[in-house]
């Protein structure tokens, strides 16, 4: 393989696909020009199926628009969409206690509030990225405030409704890992020490509690002190989620001049998770595995969702940037060839989100409350910049 030519081809592809396919699709079918914000519940051809708005996608979309503006091209339509969506977030998406809703109507009336704080995490990165794009410092301050409120919600007993009864003592991977990425994004606009402190705390928790060498796996749920609990739920491995965590840690290692301990930790998680996730029969990253190889409880366990493939594309490029090892370029080639052979919709644009294990389309809608303009455009932007970094390093 001519790696230089390979990376040049992919860099061009990412940029063209983002600017000519993904962003135009959502600008045409997603942007709510009347009320502000973005719709995500759209059918294969972009037609609106449901006007309910996902609150975490308001933040995700605003982030993507500003992120593309900052790293791909100074497209004023993208910047305006980011601002419109952030205005919608500020006007409609916060309850009186500061905790954000999960879903609202098209015109901003609350529908549902959940025990999670992911709406807050995505609103925070939207504000920080928009601060970079617009030069308006006030959005950086808003981002840090949302981040601190999020930590307060998580640490205040009783503020968030418990997932289980008090007797159940568990800690989950998802909030630990997402705080790394959020703090990393905010650190581009703020030098508040709470950000690096949170990154260090999250990484230490992942290493101490969630990484289980006896299974060569990072588990989704563990006991208060990292105990392995032998139930269907707590044996769960989410390979895509773990691979996303791996590149979050690689990104942090890079900011610390490729700190060896962090790099090794990230590569270990990536390697473990690739081995669990890569489907040797059909290709692609499978949804869920059981760390004891028992049958997985979740009904979608053997499906192929869009986002784990995206995270694996990013992680393989980061791993190659970190190590220069050909294995990671070949890993990128395998996941990319499978992904691009099955997910893109050549007739209507954008990507399908939900495939059966063998790559057949399970349902053709382009969006819902969980899929929309985030993982795919973020992958293309991040992968474009990584290809460029690698090429610059190669000289």
How would you describe what is shown here?
- There is one protein chain.
- With 395 residues, the chain is mainly α.
- It folds into two domains: 1-161, Glycosyltransferase; 172-364, Glycosyltransferase (Alpha/alpha barrel), CATH 1.50.10.10.
- Helix content is 55%, strand content 7%.
- It has twelve helices and twelve strands.
- A three-stranded antiparallel beta sheet has the order 1-2-3.
- Strand 5 and strand 6 form a beta hairpin.
- Helix 1 (3-29) packs antiparallel against helix 12 (375-394) and helix 8 (239-255) packs antiparallel against helix 9 (260-277).
- The chain is globular, with a radius of gyration of 20 Å.
Produce a short descriptive summary:
The protein is 55% helix and 7% strand. It is mainly alpha-helical. α2 runs antiparallel to α3 (76-92).
Number of separate structural domains: 2
Q: Strand-residue fraction?
A: 5-15%
| Biggest sheet character | 3 strands, antiparallel
| Silhouette | globular
Main sheet: strand order: 1-2-3
From the N-terminal CA to the C-terminal CA, the straight-line distance is 17 Å
The CATH topology assignment of the largest domain is: Glycosyltransferase
Pfam families: GlcNAc_2-epim (PF07221)
InterPro entries: 6-hairpin_glycosidase_sf, 6hp_glycosidase-like_sf, AGE/CE
Organism: Hoylesella saccharolytica F0055
Protein name: N-acylglucosamine 2-epimerase
